[in-house]
Amino acid sequence: MYPSQWAALQQLEDQQLGRVMRQALDYAFNEVIPENKEVAFLFIKAQIDVDAAKYEEKCQQSRDAARSRWTPKDANDSDRIPTDASAYDRTKRNADDAKDKDKDKDKDKDKDKDNDNDKRKDNNKENTQEKSEPSSSSKFIFKKALIDNGCNTQLAEDYMSLRNRKKAPSTKTAFNGIVREANKYIESHPGATFSDVVTIMVERNWVGFDAAWVKDIPTAEPEESEYMKAMNAQVRRQREIDAEIEAERQRRMRENK
User: Fold this and answer.
1) What is the pLDDT of residues 112-161, one digit of tens each?
2) Has residue 114 been placed in a domain?
3) Are residues 188 and 207 in the same domain?
4) Which of 44, 62, 105, 221 has its C-alpha lying 20 to 30 A from 184's C-alpha?
């Protein structure tokens, strides 16, 4: 549950809130979509889908890392993990025995190898640093960064399609520039979000953003979203029903007197 969701759900009556939470939990744990969906459920379902996709991506990365760790390309039979425990024990014992026998013979060789390794480390230090630097930047995914900052999947795909069509580089530097200008816009427009900024870029066919470009948009209270309109309509209708019930109860009491 997120603070933004709770802010909207607080307007519901207890009974209606209970139905929303039951539908959300049944969908999250059992993937059951209710027939009579509450409006609030659709809002929560979208966030559940986003979180589930992120979790699956992390799980896949962990599986790939484990697979590459336990099955190296140049591993021999003794290096790989055996499929049964007894084979593993035999392999380990044989390897330990072999290591004990060769331990004394390899002492002098190890000293020479250590000296050679130290020299190679000094000679290749600069090359190693140069190779390691690009790896961190290659991990940046522009679309994932959009979703992490509040954009839904469809909006992120629309914006990425726009960037690809205009051949704009999807780098971390470009993304940070958009975030910096978006924050300026959000500060001067209460209620605005990063998702609103990306929507403006897609609607106006912009691959970049500058807060100064949209100064013509007046600063005002944020327009009520379709979700909030539906939520408020439900609350108003429930109050009307409660008022009708109370009026009928009062009428019957007067008749009984």
Assistant:
1) 666 666 667 666 655 555 454 444 446 889 999 999 999 999 999 999 99
2) yes
3) yes
4) 44
The answer to whether residues 131 and 152 belong to one domain is no
List Cα–Cα distances, 157 to 152, 164, 198, 199, in angstroms: 9, 10, 11, 11
Residue 188 inside a domain? The answer is yes
C-alpha span between 108 and 90 (Å, rounded):
29
| Cα–Cα distance for residue pair 9/20, rounded to 1 Å | 9
Give the separation between CA 57 and CA 140, rounded to whole angstroms.
Answer: 14
pLDDT given at position 211: 85
pLDDT tens track for 49-76? 888 888 888 889 888 888 887 765 555 5
Q: How many domains does the chain have?
A: 2
- Domain endpoint, select from 139, 156, 181: 139
Half-sphere exposure at residue 39, Cβ-oriented, CA atoms within 13 angstroms: 15
Q: Are 12 and 20 spatial neighbours (Cβ–Cβ below 8 Å)?
A: yes
Give a yes or no: residue 8 inside a domain. no
Q: CB neighbours of 217 closer than 8 A, spacing ≥ 6?
A: 189
* 157 belongs to a structural domain: yes
Q: Structure tokens of 233? A: 């309509």
